[in-house]
Every structure is written in C-alpha cells, then in structure tokens.
Amino acid sequence: MAEAVTIQVEPRDPAKNKGTGSRASKRLRADGRVPAIIYGHKQDPVPISLSNDDVAMMLKKSVHLAQLSWEGKSEMAVVRDVQWDHLGKDIIHLDFLRVSAGETVEAEVALEMHGEPVGLALGGRLEQLVRSLKIKAKPDAIPKSLTLEVGGLNVGDAILVRDLKGLMPDGVTTEAEESVMLVHVVEKKAGSAADTGDEGAEGGGEAEGAKSEA
C-alpha cells in the first residue's frame, strides 16, 4: 500500500526569476528541475519544481502519494498527471492533487505480469494490451501496482478487467469497463516478429479507465 514519500520542493516565484511560463519551465529543466503544480481542495494552485533526482526516485519506487514540503509548509498530494516529452523519454511536468487521509481519490497504477503462460510452450505469444489502470482508493491504500498472474493462460485465454474482482486490495475499485481485455495469449503467425524469438509482451489499444503504452 502507498506510503507518503516526503519530497522537498521549491516554489516557482516570478519575483525570483523562476517564473511560470514555458521559457521559465525550460530554464528549470536546464537546471535539473521539473516544473509542477499543486491544486485542489478549493485552494489556490501553487507552482513548484522538483529535482530530477526526486522525480527519478518517484518513478523507480512507483510513488503515488507524496508529502510535499517547502518554506515551512507541507501538503499531502497524489500524482494526478504526468507529461512526457514528445519522445516519451523525459518528464516535463507533474500535476499534484491535494488530498486528505480519509477521502477517496483517483490514481493510475501500473499492471505487471507474473509467471510464464503455459501457452507459450504450445506455440502461443503473450500480449499485454493494457499497461495501467485507473483505480479509486483512499490515499494510503493506493497500491504501487496490480499484478496479473498469467502462468495459467493457454492459447486463446485472456485476463479481463472483470477478472480483477476479488484480486483488488481492500478498498480499491475501478470503473473501467469489465469487458476490457488486459492481456491474452494468441497463436503465433508464421513469419511474425514473435517467431524470431521475441516472446515478450506487446502493446495494444486503449480503453476507458485503462491505458496502454504508445
């Protein structure tokens, strides 16, 4: 379950030549910082910035919940949106939503696979169609990821959103369509890229409440 990670941030103040426009954001990134904003709870938005090291740590640890601290202030927030550059390599902006411990919030968590499908030995190919899922939970109940057990999948088998019922941690729900297919094992086609020895999961399309890799 999620634990708030304390991160020291800096306010973006035009009076201190930090600014909040696109040029100022580019200067921040050149200085090794990522622009961000905190909003919500009917309070004024606060433009801030984080160090590249802190952003890298958040990615590595799949941080969803953060205690943001600056100039004697501290606010608990969840990551609401992440903007990447056009190559999908670097994060160029983060949105944080203020939260309180007892409220239910929306978050997007990664879907990870565990096991090797039995269908691979029978000529199948594993495809992961959806890479992340929108869930709702209290801030301290947000899981770092959701694990899909794929070891029992044969050729033609699939895991759908409806199959996650009973597997979700307590207090975690999703409004994604139950018929959305998350992962499946399909028969290899002669001459396909998978026949060259690449049996890793492949990406696919998108669905409401779920997100695939571009």
UniProtKB/TrEMBL annotation:
The keyword RNA-binding applies. SUPFAM superfamilies: Ribosomal protein L25-like. One of its GO terms (molecular function) is structural constituent of ribosome. Keywords: Ribonucleoprotein, Ribosomal protein, RNA-binding, rRNA-binding. Residues 1-26, 190-214 are annotated as: Disordered. GO terms for biological process: translation. InterPro entries: Rbsml_bL25/Gln-tRNA_synth_N (IPR020056), Ribosomal_bL25/Gln-tRNA_synth (IPR011035), Ribosomal_bL25_b-dom (IPR020057), Ribosomal_bL25_C (IPR037121), Ribosomal_bL25_long (IPR001021), Ribosomal_L25_dom (IPR029751), Ribosomal_uL5_bac-type (IPR020930). GO terms for cellular component: cytosolic large ribosomal subunit. Residues 8-96 form the Large ribosomal subunit protein bL25 L25 domain. Residues 105-188 form the Large ribosomal subunit protein bL25 beta domain. This is one of the proteins that binds to the 5S RNA in the ribosome where it forms part of the central protuberance. Part of the 50S ribosomal subunit; part of the 5S rRNA/L5/L18/L25 subcomplex. Contacts the 5S rRNA. Binds to the 5S rRNA independently of L5 and L18. Belongs to the bacterial ribosomal protein bL25 family. CTC subfamily. This is Large ribosomal subunit protein bL25. The gene is rplY.
